Amino acid sequence: MQITPFLKKDANVPIYLQLYQFFREEIEKGSIITGEKLPSIRELSQSLNISRNTVDTAYQQLIAEGYVVSREKSGLFVLELDDVPMVQEVQHELKLPHVEGKTDNLIDFQYGDIELERFPIKVWKKCLLGAVDAPSHEVFSYGDKKGHYGLRTEIASYLYQARGVRCSPDQIILTAGTQTAVNLLIQLLSLQNEKVALEDPGYDGVRYVFESQKCEVVPISLDEDGINITELEQSSAQCVYVTPSHQFPIGMILPVQKRMKLLQWAGKNQTYIIEDDYDGEFRYLGQPIPSLKSLDTNEKVIYLGTFSKAFLPAARVTYIVLPEPLVEVYQSKLFYISQTVSQHIQEALYRFMKEGHFGRHIRKMRKIYQGKQAALLKAIECQLGDKVNVIGQKAGLHLLLELKGLDAKQLVEKAEEFGIRIYLTEKFWLKKPPQFDQPIMLGFGGLSVEQIESGVNQLARVMKVCEINQKIGEMKS
Amino acid sequence: MQITPFLKKDANVPIYLQLYQFFREEIEKGSIITGEKLPSIRELSQSLNISRNTVDTAYQQLIAEGYVVSREKSGLFVLELDDVPMVQEVQHELKLPHVEGKTDNLIDFQYGDIELERFPIKVWKKCLLGAVDAPSHEVFSYGDKKGHYGLRTEIASYLYQARGVRCSPDQIILTAGTQTAVNLLIQLLSLQNEKVALEDPGYDGVRYVFESQKCEVVPISLDEDGINITELEQSSAQCVYVTPSHQFPIGMILPVQKRMKLLQWAGKNQTYIIEDDYDGEFRYLGQPIPSLKSLDTNEKVIYLGTFSKAFLPAARVTYIVLPEPLVEVYQSKLFYISQTVSQHIQEALYRFMKEGHFGRHIRKMRKIYQGKQAALLKAIECQLGDKVNVIGQKAGLHLLLELKGLDAKQLVEKAEEFGIRIYLTEKFWLKKPPQFDQPIMLGFGGLSVEQIESGVNQLARVMKVCEINQKIGEMKS
Fold first, then answer.
1. Could you tell me if B364 and B82 are in contact, meaning their C-beta atoms sit under 8 angstroms apart?
2. Superfamily designation of domain A107-114+361-476
3. What's the sign of the alpha-carbon dihedral B368, B373, B376, B379?
4. A119 touches chain B (CB under 8 A)
5. Which of B318, B332, B338 to mutate to test the interface with A (most CBs of A within 10 A)?
6. Under a CB-based contact definition with an 8 Å cutoff, are residues A459 and A376 in contact?
7. Do A342 and B314 touch (CB under 8 A)?
8. Which of A7, A443, B83, B412 is the most exposed place for a label (fewest CB within 10 A)?
9. Domain residue limits, chain B
């Protein structure tokens, strides 16, 4: 293959990103076709006069996003592209359906729902059947306490490619959901009766677990760019739980400088960081920022990932990556803990990953979700532009809306009457600021573009009703 | 159908048991054939001049064991019997294969393994596929926090028929394994830093969970017939965890008088009993004793059941039955806890139960395990009769062997050299009695009759070797 990427060495965009974008566009345009082999790292670094590392980084990103696959000893090959709507395609003019009053078809902006129509149900069924047929005795027994070894191997290799996390399968422990994982970490790190710092606002489901285990939860407020490091330093916490790739629920991405400070904090105080990378797969804007774990030279970061967002909430599979020194502590202290994920699900997921379906699925879903998010943003801009500010649009499967002047609770209630379910966010705050105006949460993973558009359109009507009601209320009083 | 059971009203055996045994034998002999309808309760109670309750109890037992099925408004019908080896059939003469030294084929008497060859793999695959195909949105999402409602309904009805437990699906919570269930109960009952009484010896996997949650574990010793109630009364514990249907690991069955005392203790002290009925399905000797929960009029018993023994360890499904008053406490206190069992496994299990496969499976497995146990007992009697005492043969999937004079650790090590894996039991004891001689544990669920026979035969050789070694050791010293 002759390739001639036009690389601007003095541009703001790093070379590896330019190279990555070049290949991605060529593949998407069809200039480089399915099955074609990419030039070797050596060839390309020589012909472009750039370092091998730069080429490798670009290639790793292409692998992680499912554009190419690496075949042992033969090189990188371009994968088939699915017929996925591009972001541009959905930015057509908004239809304005005539909807009056309450509708029977509730449009539910529930966070946590995923796209089901394009879920690879046939492949998943094949994997499940294969799992039950697997000759391995283990598949029918309690199995490995840390989880299916093959699956842990697949996860380790995925994490290296996609998130820059270097770990061995021995460092990985599978659990039935993130709450189960956090419960286990509280035992492992002996956090009972100790101070644990949490982002405020943050994920309430995890906060309750810390509280139920008698941890003293210390809320740390957020700056524009994420967790306030000074407050953290003053907290004398033994451990911090953070969502740096996509702060939940606000959505900022922690810049690399702050990541380094966080790591310094942990190194200096001999404390641990729990990095919950719950939806790191779905990043739409800006260039990739390395995960905290990939920057962790002091073995102080415990990484959490989940298949709930990237694949299937119904699978209930979360994974913990322990720093090397904690593996032994785990084995001597928590040896008795049985595996909580069904062996059949583990074996099926192993097959799904091993056969390359997972990488492709992630890539496909990233486009689909990006398309949905674009539709949502466009609809919000057209319909609600003057009434809200959008928060957290760089990544993930939800947005927050800051309301200008409207009362959040009234809006949510009224929306329900009109067949639109949207969500309050106050439960995510532990310390509410004075004169707290909570934003509204819209999850879009489970809705079609049509539902999103029709939902926002309807929401605009609801807002008008609320405005009028509020004015009437003011006139009366 | 004309039926003429010969009931001895003055016999020691209660009428309902005689009636149950009559039907069971007639069905097994083929005198009453598949699809035939049993007489209605009214008819039979009139014709035999016995109470309707008596007939109903006998019929419930037949349903629970899968001999008949109840079809709404039409009555009870006889189910097809599988081609299952009867207990008698396996009591043939023992083969004595010539085995020398170490063998490549390890025979592993691991407790927790189940019979796989007769596992209904086709049906289970059908249920799994059906689950993934299910139109329900819930099957692909996080689902009901307490678990799949249909599955909870099936469990409620199974528990009524099989264990006399009356509960509504609302009282049932599904969890990924028993440790997860106990963890949840510790939160629910606020047992952290409180005294919790455990049978000693008992199930170590649960003891570790209590300890890790900072409960003060109080070991209660066992009498011949189960937990020592006086010690329990003196313990001032807030809660007791017991295995009354088949004490783990010793195997005694708590007599009904002691069950009543246990319930009185809980009623008087406003404490809770956690009844772990982990293998209540597999009872071979003696008449059924009602579960603690079925006798609980004070709402003080929390019942735990699992599909790990009765169905499949790989499913990782345990269920909690809460007393009615605790349901509200659960909802207000633990509302945040996500379901830990995969939706796909839950839906598949629901289908498996709803279509009647579960009841049949239990009945089939009871016979298979009974056959295996009979083979094991026979082999032990023939081969090791003078060297061991058998403990706990009334129920379950394991036996203990008390050694006469041999050292348990040496035996286990030497057996491993000879290709036989047997298990020490000291880990089940918290307070070891002075001059403690631990029994050996043999699980037989996962082994074939041939493996059992060959394993015990080999064990006899190992014991001889150990005896000789011990004598040599004595002579030397």
1. yes
2. Aspartate Aminotransferase, domain 1 (3.90.1150.10)
3. negative
4. yes
5. B338
6. no
7. yes
8. B83
9. 1-92, 107-114+361-476, 121-355
Evaluate whether A375 touches A449 at the Cβ level (below 8 Å).
yes
* ipTM attached to this prediction: 0.75
Q: Report whether CATH 3.40.50.880 matches the domain B1-92.
A: no
- At B434, list the tokens: 């002075």
Residues B174 and B148: beta-carbon distance below 8 Å: yes
β-strand partners of B217: B196
pLDDT digits (tens, 9 = 90+) for A263-308: 999 999 999 999 999 887 888 776 667 789 999 999 999 999 999 8
CA angle A250, A254, A256 (to 5 degrees): 170
Would you give the distance in Å from CA A242 to the centre of its chain? 13
Residue of B128, B188, B312, B316 to mutate for A, most A C-beta atoms under 10 A = B316
Q: Average pLDDT per run of 10 along chain A, which is 477 residues long? A: 69 77 79 82 84 83 72 80 39 34 72 84 91 74 86 93 89 96 96 96 96 95 94 97 94 89 96 93 74 92 91 88 97 93 93 91 89 95 93 89 93 94 95 87 94 95 90 80
- B19: nearest Cα among B33, B34, B37, B49: B49
Residues of chain A contacting residue B448, judged by C-beta atoms under 8 Å apart? none
| Exposure b/e, A120-130, CB count within 10 A at least 16 = b | beeebbbbbbb
Measured between alpha carbons, how far is A169 from A162 in angstroms, rounded to an integer?
Answer: 16
Establish if A217 touches chain B: CB-CB under 8 angstroms: no
Choose among A158, A155, A153: nearest CA to A63.
Answer: A158
Domain A121-355, architecture per CATH: 3-Layer(aba) Sandwich (3.40)
Structure tokens of A12?
């703001």
* Residues in contact with B195: Cβ distance below 8 Å, sequence separation at least 6, in sequence order: B215, B216, B218, B235, B236, B237, B238
Residue B19, token pair as written in the block: 């009636």
The CA-based angle A371-A372-A378, given to 5 degrees, is: 90
